[in-house]
Amino acid sequence: MRSRTPDRLCAEAVDLALAAAVEAAGEDSVGEHLGVVADGDRVVTHFFACREPAYRGWRWAVTVARASRAKSVTLDETVLLPGSDALLAPEWVPWSERLRPGDLGPGDLLPTEAEDLRLEPGFSGEDAPPPNSVVSEEQAREAAEPAAPEAAAADGAAATAAPPVVPPARGSISAVAEELGMRRARVLSRYGLHTAADRWDEAYGAKTPMAQAAPASCSTCAFLVPLAGSLRQAFGVCANEFAPADGRVVSLSYGCGAHSEAAVMPQPSRPAPPVIDETKVDPMPLHPERAGGSVEETAPEEELGHS
């Protein structure tokens, strides 16, 4: 418990505390005396202002003490402590919690923990017998173990007649597993599957403003490419280059204005082809007929004379 009243001799040792702070930080970094606090019996801490521009609000704390029945004050420690309005660095956060989508760049490696909840051990087929095998586990174990000398001598003739039972090779199940995409050290767990589905639904789901204003959902759009497996029931990939979610995983309840059936444009009307009658010829005279005009011929003008 701190004493309410600082020790008189320790509280008066301002010069000793100032000299210790100047020795530790330099004369330009130590400012005026800010106060004194009692840390215990005959233990006092003096505070001095810090003039460093990078440590605004910090204080130099110099702790002095005095032994029982002693008149000399000794120096304990000198440290730089933040004040009530000090500028502090943000709390340190591990890199795994600071990482955000899009931070990974070319050449970067993102390690995954051995006990990552998003992953679970995969199936390779190397550590399991082939399914529906005709050889039982006991027979496979007996075939793998060498026979005893007594049994080999007694059943010599039978051994030469019938070859030992050899379990079938396991390469076939490994090939099938690799073809099905199961030959991996770890696969996505149910937890990882659910977290990915929640993330995709939040980005391109039914609650987004785009989906709320869409004329129809992606489940009826021709540009939707369904996913495989259990995700096929709820998600697909948009294949419309004009859609805002082109190339992204979208929920079947998502939608946008680029829906294939939102506004089907009618076929443009085409004019009928011209009909030309090539069996008849229309006469085209070079000189028009005089009687065929609409203007009547007038009498010839009389010759003009002098009276």
How would you characterize the overall build of this protein?
- 22% of the residues lie in helices and 17% in strands.
- The protein has 307 residues and is of the alpha+beta class.
- A four-stranded antiparallel β-sheet has the order 1-2-3-4, covered by helices on one side. Strands 7-8-9 form a three-stranded antiparallel β-sheet. A two-stranded antiparallel sheet has the order 5-6.
- The chain is elongated, with a radius of gyration of 49 Å.
- The mean pLDDT is 79.
One letter per element, helices H and strands E, the order comes to HHEEEEHEHHHHEHHEEE
Q: Could you tell me the radius of gyration in angstroms? A: 49 Å
Question: What is the molecular shape?
Answer: elongated
Mean pLDDT metric: 79
Tally of separate helices: 9
Distance between the termini: 155 Å
Low-confidence stretches: none
- Placed side by side, the strands forming the largest sheet appear as 1-2-3-4
**Which structural class do you get from the secondary structure elements?**
alpha+beta
Task: Describe the SSE topology.
Blueprint lengths: L7 H4 L2 H12 L4 E11 L2 E8 L7 E8 L8 E9 L12 H4 L20 E3 L15 H8 L4 H6 L1 H6 L9 H9 L6 E3 L1 H14 L5 H4 L11 E3 L8 E4 L10 E3 L56
Antiparallel strand pairs: 1-2, 2-3, 3-4, 5-6, 7-8, 8-9
Name its key features:
single chain; 307 residues; alpha+beta; 4-stranded antiparallel beta sheet; 3-stranded antiparallel beta sheet; 22% helix
Give a summary of the structure in a few sentences.
The protein is built from nine helices and nine strands. It is α+β, with helices and mostly antiparallel strands and about 300 residues long.
